[in-house]
Every structure is written in C-alpha cells, then in structure tokens.
Specification:
Elements lengths: L5 E4 L2 E5 L5 H10 L1 H4 L15 H13 L4 E7 L2 E12 L5 E8 L8 H17 L3 E6 L4 H10 L2 E12 L2 E11 L7 H6 L16
Parallel strand pairs: 5-6
Antiparallel strand pairs: 1-2, 2-3, 3-4, 4-5, 6-8, 7-8
Helix pairs in contact: 4-5
The structure holds coenzyme A.
The site of coenzyme A has 22 residues, from α2, β5, α4 and α5.
Length: 206
C-alpha cells in the first residue's frame, strides 16, 4: 500500500493522515466533546488520551506494518474528520474494519457515506480485500444511516464488543463482500441501486 494517496469524489477527499494534521484533529475533537464522546473507543485500563501526535504516530505504525489505512476526510482542503481502516488481514481472511467520525459542522451532507464508499472500493479493487466490516452501537442512528445508504449487509449483534465512553458496548455488525458490489459501492449508491438493509432494532442504555 502506498504511504500517500488521495481518493476523491465531488468536494470530499480522503487521504492518509500526516503528523501535521495533529493540530486540526485536536481542535475538532476538543471542540466537539459532546458530539463524539458517546461513540469514542476508550481504554478500560487508562484514562482517555488527548495526545494527538501520539495517536497519529500509532496510526502511522499500522500503515507501516500494513495492518491499517488511517485517513483524514477533507472538504475544501480542510480536515473535517477521520476514517480509519484497521485490522487489515490478508490471505485466507483478506478483511478489514472501518471506523469514522466527522465534525458536526458538515454533518448530514453525505460526507461520511461518500468517504466510506471511496475507502471500501479502494480496499476491494486496489488492496484486493474480500470483506469490509463496520460495527455500530444500536443507538447510533446517524451511523446506522451511513451503512443503510451504502447497503452494508447486517450480520449480527456482538455483545460487549468495544469499550466505548467508559463501558463495554454491544455493536451491530454490518459487512460487504467484494463479490456483492462488483460495480463499486460508490457507483451503486450514486445510481440509487442500493438494496434495503434489514436489521433488528435494539435498545441499549449507557
Ligand atoms: C455518524 C456520522 C459519521 C455520520 O456522518 P454524516 O457525514 O453526517 O452522514 P450523513 O450525511 O449520511 O448523515 C447520516 C444521518 O445523520 C443524521 N444527521 C443529519 N444531519 C445531522 C446533523 N446536523 N446533526 C446530527 N445528525 C445529523 C441524519 O439521521 C442522517 O441521515 P439522513 O441523511 O437519512 O437524514 C456523524 O454523525 C458522526 O461523526 N457522529 C459522531 C461520531 C460517530 O458516531 N461515529 C461513528 C461511530 S460507528
């Protein structure tokens, strides 16, 4: 995987994170605590770190060892969020998971589904993966809309899957296989050909 490349559609650009993005990411994360906190992964054994340079260093290490593809989402040359591809496995598994967040300033404009579609198409067509997965808390209505828009298929409920906002949270698992979207995830969405996504509605309390 190259260290530096960009994927674009309209005014949405996805590119590999750089150390010099630390300040922009810090400003966005610190000024949007209420927006992000319910969905942010936390460490059960340590307080949350706001050392953004250390976080980017960690993300870039995943790029070096080819287990991750850490990206920022830009609009008009400005960082507005992050999309992180993690847990990349090759060979007989050939899969990865995608996580994301954006600034509330640009929410509701289809920026995240565009970024997820661009990343998924890249992982299938360029990296050669076979499966891409997204895990979402049952109460995250906005994020559920992202997978619904793109037609990620519901696969099941993982109990206590990720430590988020101070507790082990259940997650709904959605996935796509490369064979299911041969014409491209972005194209399928733009053409209005995404099949309906069925999944059970669960209630979970903090
Ligand atoms: C989830 C998230 C990434 C969606 O990004 P987005 O670029 O706004 O995605 P979309 O434009 O497709 O909007 C998705 C839904 O968000 C909701 N939404 C729209 N505008 C909104 C706004 N201004 N504020 C809050 N939610 C809004 C709507 O339900 C929308 O669905 P709709 O288009 O059917 O009305 C974003 O809300 C976010 O970063 N949330 C906080 C972090 C998070 O939840 N990350 C994902 C963890 S799995």
């Amino acid at each position: 995987m190259p260290n530096s490349f960009a994927l674009t559609h309209g005014d949405v650009k996805l590119r590999i994170v750089r150390m010099r993005d630390a300040k922009a990411i810090q400003d966005l994360v610190l000024s949007n605590r209420e927006w992000l906190r319910p969905w942010e992964a936390t460490n059960p054994e340590a307080p949350q770190s706001f050392d953004f340079k250390a976080q980017i260093r960690g993300l870039l290490r995943s790029m070096d060892d080819q287990t991750g593809m850490p990206m920022v989402i830009e609009m008009d040359g400005r960082v507005v969020g992050q999309l992180n591809v993690a847990n990349i496995l090759y060979g007989s598994v050939s899969s990865a998971v995608i996580g994301y967040w954006i600034s509330p300033e640009v929410a509701g404009r289809g920026v995240t589904p565009t970024a997820v579609a661009l990343a998924t198409d890249y992982l299938f067509n360029i990296v050669g993966l076979h499966r891409v997965e997204i895990a979402i808390r049952p109460e995250n209505v906005a994020s559920l809309r992202v997978v619904e828009k793109l037609g990620f298929r519901y696969e099941g409920l993982k109990r206590g899957y990720i430590h988020i906002n101070g507790g082990w949270r259940d997650h709904l698992i959605f996935a796509l296989l490369a064979d299911e979207v041969r014409g491209g995830v972005l194209n399928r969405w733009l053409r209005g050909e995404v099949p309906a996504v069925e999944y059970p509605r669960f209630e979970e309390k903090d």
